[in-house]
Amino acid sequence: MLRTSVGPAGLAAIALLVPSNAPRAQETADPMQSITEAELRDHIHYLASDFLAGRDAGSEGYTLAAHYGAILFGAAGLEPMLADSAGAFTFFQRIAFKNMKVSGASALRVTVDGETQNYRLGEGFLAVQLFSSRPLNTEETPVFVGRGIEEPDHGWNDYEGLEVSGKIAVMVGGAPTRDAEPVLPEEQHAVYSSLQRSANMRVMSALRHDPSALIIVVDSGSISLWNEVATMMERPSMRSDSPAGAEEGAPRASPWIIFMKAEDAAGLLSGTGCDPQTGGGTCTPGPLDGVRVALDLKQDVEPAFSSPNVVALLPGTDPALKDEHIVVTAHLDHVGIRNGQIYNGADDNASGSAAILEAAEAAAMAPVKRSIIFVLFTAEEDGLLGAMHFVANPPVPVESIVLNINLDMVGRNSPDWPESLLAMGSENRRPQLLELIRDVNSRVGAELDWRLNEGSDPHNHVQRSDQLAFMQKGIPAILITRGFMGPDYHRPSDDPGTINYAKVLQATRLAYGLAAEAANREPLFEE
Ligand SMILES: [Zn+2]
Question: Where are the alpha helices (DSSP H) in 245-320?
Fold first, then answer.
């Protein structure tokens, strides 16, 4: 219906009209009961409508979503706590970003036994940089890290005894074998056999060893990975452009990651006993003597732009404890439009954003001892950039933040955890956080799955959303999610019609209940 573009006044009117059929919170005395499915449904239908075009950070659609959030925070009676350039209070924490793209002038040269081969970006090699934008210009003998697999529980570690830090590392795909028998259990063997499925794990392992660059040889069975990376390279990647936030959250190890096709890597791997087409063979790790790799890699910077976090304060009521803060968060952005298709991101993360709006409204009905800050983050999908900026430039002293509660994707059923939510505590406070969650949930009655708190998490949920920014500052964090995999994840089909609204209601009540309980508890954590 809304086909024409509208000015700020028009969009304010639209934003206020959208949740019109919902009961007003003030009519209900119990804040917990004031949170309703109908209101959550309204928020999700607006935020995940085509009108907002996938809420890509920096886009007009994201700006509309941010204004919607600010207007509703204000309507709920929360306070802005940031100052704009004219000194007026605002709900917006504006962040300067820049877009980076790997320069077409980047070059790769490989010399094997005196014979030199040059490769062109996009044809002979692909290059991406995960967190930083540092150029790299070097020529050296690289280190072969075999298949780049660390599975010490199964007696396998390709990095054992290798000095990789600051050097160029070369890695092949494939799963390890001994006497033609798989070394790893069947399921893991299958995962590692596919470079596509195991690329994340291998890169995470490599990051811990801090190479300056990682060259991944793409075997002929994993050409879809090559295509995916090539598509990814066409889109510019975002970085914070503000001095204090710039690369603040980036791990020290932020290597260039380079992909070469197997047929181009035969010379490079000639001394390793490794078949680049399959990743089969002995693939013995070690320095690649007789090989020199020259890299000249840089990023082009595209014009800067800004995109805000939306930040609202509910002041605490206790004279002393009000200076401590619980920060309740969800990312508001999604991935926008790709290949002409709108990615509405209803579950990811209109669901969590709607929960923040309703939890904030409920909390404002009954203020508590500690202060609560509600934040809708920008640029999560670009690498947690909004959250990283927030903890690097907090509106209150970072030491005063005693807990983060983050919601990301709370509206679908994951095949691994059907009908349930995961409520995960951070490492540093896990037992106390789980007790807090159990206690609050005895009143909320959400269906919770504890398996990832009790065992290991192959999908690494805790590292993959905004709570990580808080955890890196030593702040305890709780993540509420339905699990980061399953149907329609990062697909254009992540639409409002697929959402399990009863589940969003549970997640919202849990988040509100946790924030209110944590804000009143004395002390918050028993030592
Ligand atoms: Zn998300």
Answer: none
